[in-house]
């Protein structure tokens, strides 16, 4: 008598494919001077380890967001002072892009996830990622549908709000400013704020400036974004496309200018010329939120390494600190944790990252050593491959 198998071949394959594979996740300490953000809080680590994954945290990594090693250890993380051990995990969650040295510590076919800050990524980085068949994900590229970008949106919200507090601080006497209150009081002309870019960061900055009583003007060449901004604010505010005369006049009367353009998806890069900035009032403040993308202004574009992040040019105080959300690192880390934690819990190894979860799939700029993102490829004049061709590698 022939006994029937307990599972058909198809059922067995489905059962195997849905089994969760434990992953090792490394969280290194950031070495850049101003970088304090982290991808996971202790609460997030607790949920990840409860799901069966192993988390390795470099000693002191949470200090910048005021979380102790003990808090992470109690959440189930392995704490180590061996930086190389952290980078030997299957998945590395960083904030800044990996250095060549850090990639050398990684094992073959590992996965590195970080912010995509193109000025910090050189061709040598791409070459060594390719040689080691490493997969790399840029947080800002992650999207479930090509329309919503959770990390980019969260960071933009934080930086838009932070820009107004930074401007207020820089205009005060304490920071050598003109001693002007950002906003307005009875009998005194209100501060004039010009915002370049009507995306998420620009919209939040406008809302914060209006709440303080400032007069605000918004410029963007995308009429849809300008219309959406008006609807989101629920009130009328001055908006314009980049009309040269209108732009020049706005800059001449502005006390604060905030650059909040996004260049990831734009075919044309709009940069405000130095001539326009020369016409600004002495003592005015210019804040560029897009230094990590190359800058919104001719006076801030691609500043050389070692150049002061806060400087005066043409009598205008420039604030060009990359990733100002690091000023509120704990808030930013909580926002990142809220996004990454459920995705990690639902993921089944690298194959799950690419083929099952659209967030991660869209975020790859390198997959198994192959360049698969058009935006990144264009920066190096290299061709991009279709990621679908390589998903079967793992």
TrEMBL record:
Any one GO molecular-function label of the UniProt entry: alanine dehydrogenase activity
EC number: 1.4.1.1
Residue ranges constituting the Alanine dehydrogenase/pyridine nucleotide transhydrogenase NAD(H)-binding domain according to the UniProt record: 171-320
Gene3D superfamilies in the cross-refs: NAD(P)-binding Rossmann-like Domain (3.40.50.720)
Pfam families linked to this entry: AlaDh_PNT_C, AlaDh_PNT_N
An example Gene Ontology biological process: L-alanine catabolic process
Keyword line: Oxidoreductase
Top-level taxon of the source organism: Bacteria
Alanine dehydrogenase/pyridine nucleotide transhydrogenase N-terminal domain mapped to chain residues: 26-159
GO CC aspect terms: plasma membrane
Family: Belongs to the AlaDH/PNT family.
Protein name: alanine dehydrogenase
Organism of origin: Candidatus Ordinivivax streblomastigis
């Amino acid at each position: 008598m022939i006994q029937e198998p307990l599972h058909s071949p198809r059922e067995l394959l489905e059962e195997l494919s849905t089994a969760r594979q434990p992953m090792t996740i490394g969280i290194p300490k950031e070495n850049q001077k101003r970088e304090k953000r982290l991808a996971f809080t202790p609460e997030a680590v607790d949920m990840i380890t409860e799901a069966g994954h192993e988390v390795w945290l470099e000693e002191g990594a949470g200090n910048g967001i005021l979380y102790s090693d003990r808090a992470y250890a109690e959440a189930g993380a392995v704490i180590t002072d061996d930086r190389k051990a952290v980078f030997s995990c299957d998945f590395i969650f960083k904030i800044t892009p990996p250095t060549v040295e850090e990639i050398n510590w990684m094992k073959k076919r590992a996965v590195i996830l970080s912010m995509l800050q193109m000025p910090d990524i050189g061709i040598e980085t791409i070459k060594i990622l390719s040689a080691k068949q490493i997969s790399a994900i840029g947080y800002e590229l992650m999207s479930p549908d090509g329309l919503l970008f959770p990390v980019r949106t969260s960071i933009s919200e934080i930086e838009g709000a932070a820009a107004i507090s930074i401007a207020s601080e820089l205009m005060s006497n304490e920071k050598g400013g003109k001693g002007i209150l950002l906003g307005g009081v009875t009998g005194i002309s209100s501060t004039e704020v010009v915002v370049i870019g009507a995306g998420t960061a620009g919209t939040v900055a406008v809302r914060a400036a209006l709440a303080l009583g400032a007069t605000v003007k918004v410029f963007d060449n995308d009429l849809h974004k300008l219309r959406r901004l008006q609807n989101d604010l629920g009130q009328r505010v001055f908006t314009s496309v980049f009309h040269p005369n209108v732009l020049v006049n706005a800059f001449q009367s502005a006390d604060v200018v905030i650059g909040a353009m996004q260049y990831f998806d734009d075919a044309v890069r709009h940069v405000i010329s130095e001539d326009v900035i020369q016409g600004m009032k002495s003592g005015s403040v210019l804040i560029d939120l897009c230094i990590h993308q190359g800058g919104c202004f001719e006076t801030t574009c691609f500043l050389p390494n070692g150049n002061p992040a806060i400087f005066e040019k043409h009598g205008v105080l420039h604030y060009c600190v990359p990733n100002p959300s690091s000023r509120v690192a704990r808030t930013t880390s909580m926002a990142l944790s809220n996004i990454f934690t459920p995705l990690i819990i639902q993921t089944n190894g690298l194959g799950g990252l690419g083929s099952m979860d659209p967030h991660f799939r869209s975020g790859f700029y390198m997959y198994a050593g192959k360049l698969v993102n058009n935006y990144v490829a264009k920066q190096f004049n290299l061709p991009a491959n279709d990621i679908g061709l390589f998903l079967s590698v793992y």
